[in-house]
Design goal:
Layout (H helix, E strand, L loop, with lengths): L2 H12 L1 H16 L1 H4 L4 H31 L6 E4 H16 L1 H8 L4 H10 L2 E4 L2 H4 L2 E4 L1 H18 L4 E7 L3 E8 L33 H11 L3 E6 L5 E8 L6
Parallel strand pairs: 2-4
Antiparallel strand pairs: 1-3, 4-5, 5-7, 6-7
Helix pairs in contact: 2-4, 5-6, 5-9, 9-10
The structure holds adenosine-5'-triphosphate (ATP) and magnesium ion.
Protein backbone atom coordinates (compact mmCIF):
# COMPACT_ATOMS: atom_id res chain seq x y z
CA UNK A 1 0.00 0.00 0.00
CA UNK A 2 1.32 3.46 -0.78
CA UNK A 3 2.38 5.74 2.10
CA UNK A 4 -0.48 8.23 1.86
CA UNK A 5 -3.06 5.46 1.98
CA UNK A 6 -1.39 3.82 4.97
CA UNK A 7 -1.50 7.02 6.98
CA UNK A 8 -5.16 7.52 6.10
CA UNK A 9 -5.94 3.92 7.11
CA UNK A 10 -3.98 4.38 10.33
CA UNK A 11 -5.96 7.51 11.11
CA UNK A 12 -9.21 5.62 10.58
CA UNK A 13 -7.82 2.76 12.65
CA UNK A 14 -6.98 5.08 15.53
CA UNK A 15 -10.59 6.24 15.73
CA UNK A 16 -11.43 2.84 17.15
CA UNK A 17 -10.14 3.44 20.67
CA UNK A 18 -11.85 6.77 21.42
CA UNK A 19 -15.06 5.41 19.91
CA UNK A 20 -14.87 2.33 22.14
CA UNK A 21 -14.40 4.61 25.16
CA UNK A 22 -17.48 6.67 24.22
CA UNK A 23 -19.51 3.51 23.62
CA UNK A 24 -18.49 1.96 26.94
CA UNK A 25 -19.17 5.22 28.82
CA UNK A 26 -22.65 5.71 27.42
CA UNK A 27 -23.48 2.02 27.86
CA UNK A 28 -22.48 2.31 31.52
CA UNK A 29 -24.58 5.42 32.07
CA UNK A 30 -27.59 3.64 30.59
CA UNK A 31 -27.05 0.27 32.23
CA UNK A 32 -25.56 0.89 35.66
CA UNK A 33 -28.14 3.19 37.15
CA UNK A 34 -27.30 1.96 40.65
CA UNK A 35 -23.76 3.24 40.21
CA UNK A 36 -24.33 6.46 38.27
CA UNK A 37 -27.78 7.43 39.49
CA UNK A 38 -31.18 7.53 37.82
CA UNK A 39 -31.87 9.20 34.47
CA UNK A 40 -34.87 11.21 33.39
CA UNK A 41 -36.77 9.90 30.38
CA UNK A 42 -35.34 12.68 28.20
CA UNK A 43 -31.76 12.04 29.34
CA UNK A 44 -32.17 8.35 28.56
CA UNK A 45 -33.46 9.11 25.06
CA UNK A 46 -30.54 11.42 24.33
CA UNK A 47 -28.04 8.84 25.56
CA UNK A 48 -29.67 6.10 23.51
CA UNK A 49 -29.43 8.24 20.40
CA UNK A 50 -25.80 8.99 21.22
CA UNK A 51 -25.09 5.28 21.61
CA UNK A 52 -26.83 4.35 18.36
CA UNK A 53 -24.88 6.92 16.43
CA UNK A 54 -21.60 5.98 18.06
CA UNK A 55 -22.27 2.45 16.82
CA UNK A 56 -22.95 3.78 13.34
CA UNK A 57 -19.51 5.39 13.30
CA UNK A 58 -17.93 2.22 14.70
CA UNK A 59 -19.50 0.16 11.92
CA UNK A 60 -18.27 2.65 9.33
CA UNK A 61 -14.72 2.59 10.72
CA UNK A 62 -14.69 -1.21 10.64
CA UNK A 63 -16.12 -1.29 7.13
CA UNK A 64 -13.48 1.07 5.87
CA UNK A 65 -10.65 -0.98 7.36
CA UNK A 66 -12.14 -4.25 6.14
CA UNK A 67 -12.51 -2.95 2.61
CA UNK A 68 -8.87 -1.93 2.44
CA UNK A 69 -7.83 -5.34 3.83
CA UNK A 70 -9.85 -6.98 1.11
CA UNK A 71 -8.17 -4.90 -1.59
CA UNK A 72 -4.83 -6.07 -0.21
CA UNK A 73 -6.02 -9.68 -0.41
CA UNK A 74 -6.07 -10.32 3.35
CA UNK A 75 -8.52 -13.02 4.40
CA UNK A 76 -9.42 -13.88 7.94
CA UNK A 77 -11.13 -17.26 8.02
CA UNK A 78 -12.63 -18.58 11.23
CA UNK A 79 -15.04 -21.37 12.05
CA UNK A 80 -18.44 -20.00 12.91
CA UNK A 81 -22.04 -21.01 13.18
CA UNK A 82 -24.25 -19.75 10.35
CA UNK A 83 -26.97 -18.76 12.85
CA UNK A 84 -24.53 -16.53 14.77
CA UNK A 85 -23.32 -14.86 11.59
CA UNK A 86 -26.83 -14.09 10.33
CA UNK A 87 -28.17 -13.02 13.70
CA UNK A 88 -25.27 -10.64 14.34
CA UNK A 89 -25.50 -9.16 10.85
CA UNK A 90 -29.25 -8.57 11.27
CA UNK A 91 -28.79 -7.00 14.71
CA UNK A 92 -26.21 -4.60 13.26
CA UNK A 93 -28.52 -3.67 10.38
CA UNK A 94 -31.61 -3.08 12.48
CA UNK A 95 -29.58 -1.28 15.14
CA UNK A 96 -29.13 1.52 12.64
CA UNK A 97 -32.78 1.84 11.68
CA UNK A 98 -34.93 0.40 14.45
CA UNK A 99 -33.37 -0.32 17.81
CA UNK A 100 -36.42 -2.12 19.21
CA UNK A 101 -36.46 -4.67 16.40
CA UNK A 102 -32.73 -5.24 16.74
CA UNK A 103 -33.29 -6.06 20.44
CA UNK A 104 -36.03 -8.55 19.49
CA UNK A 105 -33.72 -10.22 16.96
CA UNK A 106 -30.94 -10.41 19.52
CA UNK A 107 -33.04 -12.38 22.00
CA UNK A 108 -34.34 -14.94 19.49
CA UNK A 109 -33.43 -18.44 20.63
CA UNK A 110 -34.26 -20.53 17.57
CA UNK A 111 -34.81 -20.30 13.83
CA UNK A 112 -38.62 -20.37 14.07
CA UNK A 113 -38.63 -17.40 16.43
CA UNK A 114 -36.14 -15.54 14.23
CA UNK A 115 -38.25 -16.11 11.12
CA UNK A 116 -41.34 -14.86 12.99
CA UNK A 117 -39.67 -11.70 14.31
CA UNK A 118 -38.25 -10.85 10.89
CA UNK A 119 -41.55 -11.58 9.16
CA UNK A 120 -43.27 -9.00 11.37
CA UNK A 121 -40.75 -6.49 10.03
CA UNK A 122 -41.27 -7.33 6.37
CA UNK A 123 -38.28 -9.66 6.02
CA UNK A 124 -38.71 -13.27 4.89
CA UNK A 125 -35.77 -15.42 6.00
CA UNK A 126 -35.31 -18.57 3.93
CA UNK A 127 -32.78 -21.05 5.24
CA UNK A 128 -33.15 -24.67 6.28
CA UNK A 129 -32.61 -25.80 9.85
CA UNK A 130 -29.57 -27.94 8.93
CA UNK A 131 -27.62 -25.04 7.45
CA UNK A 132 -28.76 -22.67 10.23
CA UNK A 133 -27.06 -24.90 12.82
CA UNK A 134 -23.98 -25.70 10.74
CA UNK A 135 -20.47 -24.39 11.43
CA UNK A 136 -18.54 -23.17 8.39
CA UNK A 137 -15.13 -21.65 7.66
CA UNK A 138 -15.86 -18.04 6.73
CA UNK A 139 -14.46 -14.52 6.70
CA UNK A 140 -16.96 -13.12 9.18
CA UNK A 141 -16.28 -9.39 8.87
CA UNK A 142 -16.40 -9.41 5.08
CA UNK A 143 -19.60 -11.45 4.84
CA UNK A 144 -21.29 -9.22 7.42
CA UNK A 145 -20.29 -6.15 5.46
CA UNK A 146 -21.69 -7.64 2.24
CA UNK A 147 -24.98 -8.57 3.92
CA UNK A 148 -25.24 -5.22 5.67
CA UNK A 149 -24.91 -3.32 2.43
CA UNK A 150 -27.26 -5.49 0.37
CA UNK A 151 -29.87 -5.63 3.11
CA UNK A 152 -29.63 -1.91 3.83
CA UNK A 153 -30.29 -1.21 0.16
CA UNK A 154 -33.16 -3.70 0.01
CA UNK A 155 -34.76 -2.21 3.15
CA UNK A 156 -34.26 1.28 1.77
CA UNK A 157 -35.59 0.62 -1.74
CA UNK A 158 -38.32 -1.97 -1.04
CA UNK A 159 -42.03 -1.26 -1.37
CA UNK A 160 -42.91 -3.52 1.51
CA UNK A 161 -40.94 -6.76 1.62
CA UNK A 162 -37.42 -8.14 1.53
CA UNK A 163 -36.41 -11.76 1.14
CA UNK A 164 -33.10 -13.13 2.43
CA UNK A 165 -32.28 -16.62 1.18
CA UNK A 166 -29.22 -18.61 2.24
CA UNK A 167 -28.26 -21.93 0.68
CA UNK A 168 -25.27 -24.18 0.56
CA UNK A 169 -24.05 -25.54 -2.76
CA UNK A 170 -21.47 -28.29 -3.13
CA UNK A 171 -18.47 -26.06 -2.43
CA UNK A 172 -20.15 -22.72 -2.09
CA UNK A 173 -22.41 -20.58 0.02
CA UNK A 174 -25.18 -18.62 -1.65
CA UNK A 175 -26.88 -15.49 -0.40
CA UNK A 176 -29.76 -13.83 -2.17
CA UNK A 177 -31.26 -10.50 -1.14
CA UNK A 178 -34.46 -9.64 -2.96
CA UNK A 179 -36.86 -6.71 -2.63
CA UNK A 180 -40.13 -5.66 -4.21
CA UNK A 181 -39.15 -2.06 -4.97
CA UNK A 182 -38.79 -0.05 -8.16
CA UNK A 183 -35.92 -2.22 -9.38
CA UNK A 184 -32.99 -1.29 -11.60
CA UNK A 185 -33.26 -1.04 -15.41
CA UNK A 186 -30.82 -3.30 -17.28
CA UNK A 187 -29.02 -0.23 -18.70
CA UNK A 188 -27.77 0.46 -15.16
CA UNK A 189 -26.81 -3.06 -14.14
CA UNK A 190 -23.08 -2.38 -14.63
CA UNK A 191 -23.04 1.23 -13.53
CA UNK A 192 -24.52 0.69 -10.06
CA UNK A 193 -21.37 -1.23 -9.09
CA UNK A 194 -19.23 1.83 -9.86
CA UNK A 195 -18.25 4.13 -6.99
CA UNK A 196 -20.52 7.14 -6.46
CA UNK A 197 -23.12 6.10 -9.02
CA UNK A 198 -26.71 6.59 -7.87
CA UNK A 199 -29.92 6.45 -9.84
CA UNK A 200 -32.41 9.29 -9.68
CA UNK A 201 -34.30 8.78 -6.41
CA UNK A 202 -37.93 7.76 -6.87
CA UNK A 203 -38.92 7.34 -3.22
CA UNK A 204 -38.65 9.66 -0.28
CA UNK A 205 -35.66 8.09 1.48
CA UNK A 206 -34.84 9.60 4.80
CA UNK A 207 -31.12 9.07 4.34
CA UNK A 208 -29.45 9.47 0.96
CA UNK A 209 -26.34 7.30 0.70
CA UNK A 210 -23.11 7.93 -1.15
CA UNK A 211 -23.25 5.41 -3.94
CA UNK A 212 -20.38 3.45 -2.45
CA UNK A 213 -22.05 0.40 -0.90
CA UNK A 214 -22.32 -1.78 -3.98
CA UNK A 215 -18.85 -0.86 -5.26
CA UNK A 216 -17.54 -2.05 -1.88
CA UNK A 217 -19.59 -5.25 -2.02
CA UNK A 218 -18.10 -6.02 -5.43
CA UNK A 219 -14.53 -5.53 -4.09
CA UNK A 220 -15.27 -7.83 -1.14
CA UNK A 221 -16.96 -10.56 -3.18
CA UNK A 222 -14.23 -10.58 -5.83
CA UNK A 223 -11.56 -10.53 -3.11
CA UNK A 224 -12.97 -13.79 -1.79
CA UNK A 225 -13.05 -15.35 -5.26
CA UNK A 226 -16.85 -15.16 -5.38
CA UNK A 227 -19.47 -13.93 -7.83
CA UNK A 228 -22.05 -11.17 -7.53
CA UNK A 229 -25.07 -11.18 -9.85
CA UNK A 230 -28.03 -8.88 -10.20
CA UNK A 231 -31.43 -9.78 -11.51
CA UNK A 232 -33.76 -6.83 -11.85
CA UNK A 233 -35.85 -4.74 -14.14
CA UNK A 234 -37.67 -1.45 -13.86
CA UNK A 235 -40.74 -1.80 -11.67
CA UNK A 236 -39.96 -5.42 -10.83
CA UNK A 237 -37.83 -5.29 -7.69
CA UNK A 238 -34.18 -6.31 -7.44
CA UNK A 239 -32.38 -9.49 -6.48
CA UNK A 240 -28.67 -9.49 -5.64
CA UNK A 241 -27.07 -12.94 -5.56
CA UNK A 242 -23.71 -13.67 -3.98
CA UNK A 243 -21.90 -16.96 -4.46
CA UNK A 244 -18.85 -17.51 -2.27
CA UNK A 245 -16.47 -20.47 -2.47
CA UNK A 246 -16.41 -22.48 0.76
CA UNK A 247 -13.17 -23.58 2.31
CA UNK A 248 -13.05 -27.00 3.94
CA UNK A 249 -9.71 -26.56 5.71
CA UNK A 250 -8.22 -23.51 7.42
CA UNK A 251 -5.66 -21.70 5.23
N1 LIG B 1 -32.26 -2.86 -4.05
C1 LIG B 1 -32.20 -1.80 -4.85
N2 LIG B 1 -33.30 -1.37 -5.53
C2 LIG B 1 -33.26 -0.30 -6.35
N3 LIG B 1 -32.14 0.44 -6.57
C3 LIG B 1 -31.03 0.06 -5.94
C4 LIG B 1 -30.99 -1.06 -5.04
N4 LIG B 1 -29.74 -1.18 -4.55
C5 LIG B 1 -29.03 -0.18 -5.10
N5 LIG B 1 -29.79 0.58 -5.93
C6 LIG B 1 -29.37 1.74 -6.74
O1 LIG B 1 -27.97 1.67 -6.90
C7 LIG B 1 -27.34 2.84 -6.36
C8 LIG B 1 -26.01 2.47 -5.78
O2 LIG B 1 -26.19 1.68 -4.57
P1 LIG B 1 -25.11 1.76 -3.44
O3 LIG B 1 -25.47 0.80 -2.37
O4 LIG B 1 -23.77 1.62 -4.08
O5 LIG B 1 -25.24 3.25 -2.94
P2 LIG B 1 -26.29 3.97 -1.98
O6 LIG B 1 -27.17 2.94 -1.35
O7 LIG B 1 -26.95 5.05 -2.78
O8 LIG B 1 -25.34 4.64 -0.91
P3 LIG B 1 -24.39 3.95 0.19
O9 LIG B 1 -24.54 2.45 0.02
O10 LIG B 1 -23.04 4.47 -0.12
O11 LIG B 1 -24.93 4.42 1.49
C9 LIG B 1 -28.35 3.39 -5.38
O12 LIG B 1 -28.19 4.78 -5.20
C10 LIG B 1 -29.67 3.06 -6.04
O13 LIG B 1 -29.97 4.04 -7.04
MG1 LIG C 1 -26.21 1.27 -0.34
Amino acid sequence: MEREKISLQLLIHDLKVPLAVIEAGVTSLLGKLDRYGPLTEKQEKVLQRTLRNTRVIQALVNDSLELERSKEGVVNITQLKVSDLIEEALVEIFDLVDHETSEKIRVCTDLKQMKGTLDENGVTLMIDEGLWCQELLLDEAKIKQILRNLLNNALKYRKSRVELRIEKGQNSLLFSVKDDGEGIPSTHHKKIFESYFQMEPTGAYSVRGHGLGLAGVMVLVEGMGGELRLQSDQGKGAEFMVKLPLKTTKP
